[in-house]
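Before relying on records like the one below, remember that each one covers exactly one chain. Contacts with other chains, cofactors or solvent are not represented anywhere in the record.
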Amino acid sequence: MASYSGAIVQWEKKAQRVLHKSAGQPYMPVVASPDLSAEQITKARAVLLGLADDAAGQAFLKQLKITGFSAGGEERLRKLLAWLGV
């Protein structure tokens, strides 16, 4: 079950046994168009990374059911894709 799913939350609330928890994997990757400049990408990254820093951003993240964004996950995502055989 996905760690962010309601199903696992209910499972654990019922004190059901979890046999294995895998290492967290990135989800909701954000990619940029090759038409964007490096400056535009830097600005967009800063906005996403800063969402958790204020109430409005936190409200938006809550709607997405995530706590925030992290940068530098490209290598981790590539490893996941390789593991999946993609």
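The radius of gyration is 16 Å.
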